Amino acid sequence: MEGEFRKIPGVDRVLAHERLSPLVETYPHDRLVRLIRRHLERERDAVAAGKKASSLSGIAAAVYNQVKTMEMPSLRPVINATGVILHTNLGRAPLSPEATAAMDTVARGYSNLEFNLESGTRGSRQVHIESLLCELSGAEAALVVNNNASGVLLGLTALARRKEVIVSRGQAVEIGGGFRIPDVMRQSGAKLVEVGTTNCTYISDYEQAVSPRTAALMRVHSSNFRLMGFTSEVALEELMVLAERYNIPVLDDLGSGCFLDTTAFGLAPEPVVPQSVALGVGLVFFSGDKLVGGPQAGIIIGRKQLMDRLRRHPLARAVRIDKVRLAGLAATLLHYLKGEATSKVPVWRMIAAPVKDIEKRAEAWKGALGNMARVVDGETMVGGGSLPGGTLPTRLVAIGNREDRNLASRAARKLRVQEIPVVGRIADDILLLDPRSVLPEEDKTVVKALRNLASDWHHTS
Ligand SMILES: *Cc1c(COP(=O)(O)O)cnc(C)c1O
């Protein structure tokens, strides 16, 4: 063992190894020395545990590889061929070039974020977005925060702390990722008063629960699940009549926040934001990165008198939005104002894409794979807590068969380790790739990955 210890090189010899010369040019000396020391310590521990000492070139290679792994950004682009357009694990909405350009411009330098150029005095970051949101929705006031979960928390805390909020039992839901209405309610200090039953809630249930301690009636979009069969929900119109009679505001957590008519694309109807406003809802809450198709944000719109209480609350500062996303969101909203959302906002481009275009692209993808794939009919999900149960028709590229159960998972893995990973979904031992959740601009990258997969295949099988 003594002999093995003596084989472990010193820091200087590792540092002088030719393998590390590119690193010596780019990294500070003491950073490399520290890195090498840690490797040598591990080496000594290994030898002490009875292992053989590594060679000098082996240690140099290990140091080099560690640095190269660190240099590779952990967070990087992937291609979403899963057929779920708003995929939370894959970063939800991709942004339009106009939105990313606006974000880039603001990120590079200083901006008038909270500076009034007219008067030369302090301003509010909300002025850059509020008029756009009010114009689009018809609301009196708007406030943008970090994300929808924080928007709802801020709203409940500012308006209903130590008071009661009435929610239908069927809407006391979990959205996923730890957002549960009862938990958010508890966190805000508001008391959740659940009314009705899981499947049926009537207006009389709400009315019986109204008390002097009631701060709000709340509606929550069921987002990612759907009740079927014997069910009854109270329409917003009906809830508004009750709210007005008792002079209690309605808080409407729409989740996704849709501005376009989804039925025009063959989808189930999704409540639209301006409708909630037109009905007189107190505050409407929705995400910036679901059906709006912008960056992560929590958008709150509604009555000015309520919004002022949110603005003044200390929590507003804790959940504020940053300048970069503010710029991206404004650029995204402008697409709606110009009436060009279905041709510019990526999630709406995907929703609006005709099946015959998808078919052509699926055939081109299949072409790159030769006889290992076929094109089949399928369905794209919108996802992201919107349109539960609603799907769009699509054509899928299918890889694999039931005889070789591993084929699909091997192909899926191969596609995930490409330079730009392509992520599909596996159903019944078949790997399915959906062009609808991929922008046509990305097809070149997909085809390249598929060619790699095919050539690999022909070499190994
Ligand atoms: C998605 C969703 C949320 C949470 O929104 P985030 O932007 O993810 O914070 C809250 N409520 C509903 C109904 C949702 O669908």
Describe this structure in words.
- The longest helix has 20 residues, at 29-48.
- The relative contact order is 0.13.
- This protein is 44% helix and 18% strand.
- The chain is an alpha/beta fold and 461 residues long.
- It is globular, with a radius of gyration of 28 Å.
- A hairpin with a 4-residue loop joins strand 3 and strand 4.
- It has 20 helices and 18 strands.
- The chain has a 7-stranded mixed β-sheet with strand order 5-13-12-11-10-6-9, sandwiched between helices.
- Bound molecules: pyridoxal-5'-phosphate.
- Pyridoxal-5'-phosphate (PLP) is lined by residues 147-149, 152, 175, 179, 220-221, 223, 253, 255-256, 287, 298, 385.
Runs with pLDDT <50, length 5+?
none
User: Mean pLDDT, as a whole number?
Assistant: 94
Q: What is the percentage of strand-forming residues?
A: 15-25%
Shape: globular
Q: Bound compounds, please?
A: pyridoxal-5'-phosphate
Q: What's the gyration radius in Å?
A: 28 Å
Task: Tell me the structural class.
Answer: alpha/beta
Q: How many beta-strand segments?
A: 18
- Helix percentage: 40-55%
Strand order of the largest sheet: 5-13-12-11-10-6-9
